[in-house]
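Progress against Task 2.4 (sequence-to-structure conversion) is shown through the following example record, which the project officer requested during the mid-term review.
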Amino acid sequence: MIKVGLTGGLASGKSFIGAELERLGAQVLEADKLGHAILMPDGEAYADVVELFGNEILSADNTIDRKKLGTIVFTDPEKLKQLNALVHPHVFNRQKQFFAEIEARDPDAVAVVEAAIMVESGSYKNYDRLILAACPSDVQIARFVEREKSTVEEAESRLDRQMPLEEKRKYADFVIDTAGSKSQTLAQVEDVYRKLRSEAQRVQTEVC
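Structure tokens generated for the chain above:
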């Protein structure tokens, strides 16, 4: 098995790439979905997060209102750091379980974890290969505004709080340029998957 990290930035096409990798045969886990599950009332971090941020982040049904929580942490770096400290260890534990289950079922699998801040958190070191979804910042902004029905100012504000994609390129084994047409992006994804699949099979052969 080969462990692959898939990362990017604001509206850079990361999820699009992840979906195509899954269609091609990779086992894909979205870290964002893990984060959602961990913050549910029966999740590992729920009680700690409510204790830290207070009941004002709760909806009427006692679930955490992610928009309210986001408003707090994305304007306060220290609060964001505290939230990540509560959530990330549980996310990483679930990722370990994911890899263990995949390896037991399919020893020469391409197992992919999709997450936004792999480079920033240093978790990219946990993977054999790192894929970066990249495109120019003006494309990111336009996509975000269209997708979220937001403003350019909001998109720029979010982008300013992220590590530039050009900086993340230094850490990536594969960079997929998503600025072109969907077919151009898909062709790049297929090429990367073919290389990863070959490497996974080679690793398994060496192990055997």
